[in-house]
Design a protein that fits this description.
6-stranded mixed beta sheet, Aminopeptidase, alpha+beta
C-alpha cells in the first residue's frame, strides 16, 4: 500500500470500499452510473485503486482496470464537490499513471472515458484521441 502525504490530503494506494464509492457517487450525482448489485465484484477486480483522505474522511477515489501488463483503463475518478477545484483529481490520476509506470514491463496503453467537463483534466495529463476513436456497446447476460 502506497501512501502519499500532502499538506491538504493523504493519498492511499488501495481500492475504495463499496461504502466509500456509494458516498462519493451520491455526492456527485452518479448513483445511476453504477449497477449496485454488481459493483462490489467490479471493485474487487480493480487492478489498483487510490483514495484521497482529508481529516479522516474519504473525499476522492480513482481506480485502474486492465490486464496489468500492456492495457490499462482509468475509471471512476470521483471527488466530493466540497473538495473539487484544488487539484485533487489531478493527483489521483497522477498516482494511477505512476503506478502503471512502475508495473508495466514495457510501453503501456492507458485509456479512459471522460465527461465533457473533465476533458481538460485529462488533456493536461497528455490524454487525447489522435486518430483513434473509442467505441463501446452493452452486452446482456446470456446473449450470444
Amino acid at each position: 500500500m502506497t501512501i502519499e502525504q500532502y499538506e491538504d490530503a493523504t493519498l492511499v494506494g488501495r481500492r475504495a470500499t463499496l461504502d466509500e464509492l456509494h458516498a462519493l457517487a451520491e455526492s456527485v450525482g452518479w448513483l445511476d452510473h453504477f449497477d449496485w448489485s454488481t459493483i462490489g465484484q467490479s471493485l474487487e477486480a480493480t487492478l489498483h485503486g487510490v483514495v484521497a483522505v482529508r481529516d479522516g474522511e474519504t473525499v476522492g477515489m480513482a481506480r485502474l482496470l486492465g490486464d496489468g501488463v500492456k492495457y490499462f483503463m482509468i475509471h471512476d475518478v470521483l471527488v466530493h464537490p466540497d473538495h473539487q477545484g484544488d487539484g485533487l483529481a489531478a493527483r489521483l490520476v497522477e498516482h494511477l499513471l505512476e503506478h502503471v509506470a512502475l508495473v508495466a514491463p514495457s510501453r503501456a496503453w492507458v485509456g479512459l472515458f471522460a465527461s465533457p467537463e473533465a476533458e481538460h483534466l485529462y488533456a493536461e495529463h497528455g490524454f487525447g484521441s489522435d486518430d483513434m476513436r473509442g467505441m463501446w456497446r452493452w452486452v446482456e447476460p446470456g446473449a450470444a
